[in-house]
């Protein structure tokens, strides 16, 4: 539950909610950059759980306190906790913003906690973002999907090695994309998904590095 109301009837900017299969709830965002960042957290197998606007912190800068709310809190498979600030790269050159972020980083370092600033350079890296958006489009919030289970059983039996081969086995391109979104199949998402893309069956204990680290 966000510590403040994220989506309000008024105010500037693009705001809304993204459905999350991983978290089984709607995740709020306050900008299109935050919305795109959610795709990273949703489909990174290194992220176990995440939430938006998780807490309010009181941080001191030059002896003066200010309140800070991280954009996201990530719980990694490694059990590390990371607070994330999503910020357009153009704003980082603003001395006021830069000084504020430095104070926030020092606060986390003092507590031996992880703090990460994500800009569009990482969040909107292509073709990864297009792949994640494609997977998200075909994803479903429901964790229970008998179609996926039957399709996975077929793939385990025949073990195709390419995206095209998987489509040939299950008979539906969209179904293969949903299997990728559910983490039941995986591939190199930093390369454009094509018929020739190599795919793998997800195995318990497999753990790719996070997209953003």
How does CATH name the architecture of the largest domain?
A: 3-Layer(aba) Sandwich
Distance between the ends: 25 Å
What is the CATH class of the largest domain? Alpha Beta
Low-confidence stretches: none
Number of strands: 10
Q: Helix coverage percent of residues?
A: 25-40%
Strand and helix layout:
Layout: E1 16-20, E2 25-29, H1 32-43, E3 47-52, E4 57-61, E5 64-68, E6 72-76, E7 81-86, H2 95-110, E8 114-118, H3 120-123, H4 128-138, H5 146-158, H6 163-170, H7 173-181, E9 185-186, E10 200-201
Parallel strand pairs: 7-8
Antiparallel strand pairs: 1-2, 3-6, 4-5, 6-7, 9-10
Helix pairs in contact: 1-4, 4-7, 5-7, 6-7
What is shown here, in short?
With 213 residues, the chain is α+β, with helices and mostly antiparallel strands. The protein has seven helices and ten strands.
Molecular structure report:
With 213 residues, the protein is α+β, with helices and mostly antiparallel strands. The chain folds into two domains: 16-123, Trna Endonuclease, Chain: A, domain 1 (3-Layer(aba) Sandwich); 128-201, no CATH class. Helices cover 34% and strands 22% of the residues. It contains seven helices and ten strands. It has helices at residues 32-43, 95-110, 120-123, 128-138, 146-158, 163-170, 173-181, and strands spanning 16-20, 25-29, 47-52, 57-61, 64-68, 72-76, 81-86, 114-118, 185-186, 200-201. The strands form four sheets. Strands 3-6-7-8 form a four-stranded mixed beta sheet, sandwiched between helices. It has a two-stranded antiparallel ribbon with strand order 1-2. The longest helix has 16 residues, at 95-110. The two termini are 25 Å apart. The model has no long low-confidence stretch (mean pLDDT 90).
